[in-house]
């Protein structure tokens, strides 16, 4: 029993005892190793000196390795101070950064198109080619030997100055290598007597590998058949890869000197085959280059072959009319193909929606169009407009009802016609529907899907037996928003000089001092590239007394003062005598005194002009393209806006401080050349009615006669202090009405006016 008890105790205590023993053993081994290392080799009997800090001199950390050289270096070590020397930094290396990200990343465009034309055909077939493909492709360039004096509008033409065909082909390839080889992956050449289906040729290159040496077109045997290989016949166009052209580049001069040929396409084919060993192919990686030979005087609408329907290029085209007929045929073909794809996708969406959680309700109508906008509050609910075939009950001027006219009338008529077409398509041949009248019409603009319509139509229904009856049918239609496109705009710069024109009348004299103070701090002191010009407007009586009593004498004195203060600044002025201060009349005078390329900013003496707005004036005014009419921020009448309150030193853009004056058209930015061209177009109307110069302002003139983009937008940097405008009844009724409305709306906000009336009513009642 005792032995078994001893064994049980030993089993429980044994591991602990063994662990402690191993620990002591390892500790002793470690101490021996460290102590042994503290003695220098061959001097184990010497004492080990101890430093002031109590540490052993010459000792090293456990498990480290010591050598004789280390010990000797420690004995001979003498500390020394290394003086600090500032590192002389050289001029930082300027890093070149590309202008565009695509250039820095090496991203290239896919397709470049070169059209081979001539002096005799550029104004006929060349123009037809440009009109049919230029708006589908990014880059289209026309190559010709000799050129006419006048190049057709909208075409980029490169002329080599020679009519030799082989020489021109050599120059074409050389021009591509010099200017465009690093910008495009594929180069397509076609003659101007061939029609090209632009979308198909672009789709072809989108599926081709850019690193292939490819020479693609219609393969043709060489004349005589002596040379092996095939070249691409030029009539149907041919596709060259960038890789192939780069490989051909060192041998281009050899081709010009050594290869003789009568045809430019055959010369190019021989050059490519001789030096790159690449033959013309019509099929590559499963992609086919389809082409079709068009018969003489053939009608494209009567061609029914599948090869014609699949063609990328059609050749030969005899005249521009045939080119346009081909373009219409292929456009209708692609349009129908698109409609079929849309119908197929809609059917797939309907089939999938059946197994969805909500069933068919998960598929929005129309299928494939964004669902309607869902308002989050009562203020976001979209408003429906009510209309009939003659009237609309939502007018721009705030009237409850007005005549349906212009683009709105065309819109309603188009929607009714489409509704009738779709109804007959649905019920024919069982029923035939005829519109009798529109009972109710509603429309609203949904920002996420487009214009929505709801029509209540009274219809006459005729069955197959000839029986008819009148019914009322409600239909819903959606005119969806189309795909967003980026419209290219001409290049403009912020370095253009602006001529600021300030018209002044007798009533404006008191505001000149404040205007000059603000303008001097914003323009004169910052060396703004702008010239300030005052236009003094005299009536006939004031003009007769100008020598005795000049009403603008004080203003001219102020101008002289600022010219002395800023010696580099000149402030010119122009004097005009007129009974009716029409914008067009005095701009006629100003226009003649400035160069054609001058940029004008027509402003008001109450306008605060700064550099921020002037830059936007430069950017938004585009010569021969766009004029800019900004909406300034107009302060409210301070007596009403700050009634019984202290007036702030500066006015912020908040609803209680002012508003953007939509009735004002006084400020305008435009080029003198655009003004002169527009003014020329209205000469005939002015000869018939001279009063038109008084009834129109510059905004209406550009809107009716220019054909330019009239850009009108709110301008937060353009600020006007409150001032009452003296409306001239001699001007047109419309201009006078706008002036009166501007004065009324500039008094204060609705809440401020209501509060003022409320206080007056309370004062009267007490």
Topology record:
Blueprint: H1 2-38, H2 68-76, H3 101-105, E1 109-116, H4 122-133, E2 140-144, E3 157-159, H5 165-179, E4 184-191, E5 195-196, H6 198-206, E6 215-217, E7 219-221, E8 230-232, E9 238-241, H7 242-248, H8 252-258, H9 264-276, E10 283-284, E11 287-288, E12 291-293, H10 306-310, E13 313-315, H11 320-354, E14 385-387, E15 391-392, E16 402-403, H12 406-427, E17 431-446, E18 450-463, E19 468-480, E20 498-504, H13 512-524, E21 530-538, H14 540-544, H15 553-565, E22 573-577, H16 583-592, E23 599-602, E24 607-608, H17 611-620, E25 626-635, H18 638-641, E26 658-660, E27 668-671, H19 672-681, H20 683-688, H21 692-695, H22 698-705, E28 709-720, H23 733-745, H24 750-765
Parallel strand pairs: 1-2, 1-4, 2-3, 12-13, 20-21, 20-23, 21-22, 25-28
Antiparallel strand pairs: 4-9, 5-13, 6-9, 7-8, 10-11, 14-17, 15-16, 17-18, 18-19, 23-27, 24-28, 25-26
Family: Belongs to the chondroitin N-acetylgalactosaminyltransferase family.
Main location: Golgi
EC number: 2.4.1.-
Structural overview:
Helix content is 38%, strand content 20%. Strands 3-2-1-4-9-6 form a six-stranded mixed sheet. A five-stranded mixed sheet has the order 22-21-20-23-27, with helices on both faces. It has 766 residues and is of the alpha/beta class. Helix 4 runs parallel beside helix 11 (320-354), helix 5 (165-179) crosses helix 9 and helix 13 runs parallel beside helix 15 (553-565). The protein has three domains: 103-327, Spore Coat Polysaccharide Biosynthesis Protein SpsA, Chain A (Alpha-Beta Complex), CATH 3.90.550.50; 385-480, Nuclear Transport Factor 2, Chain: A (Roll); 498-753, Spore Coat Polysaccharide Biosynthesis Protein SpsA, Chain A (Alpha-Beta Complex). It is extended. Strand 10 (283-284) and strand 11 (287-288) form a beta hairpin.
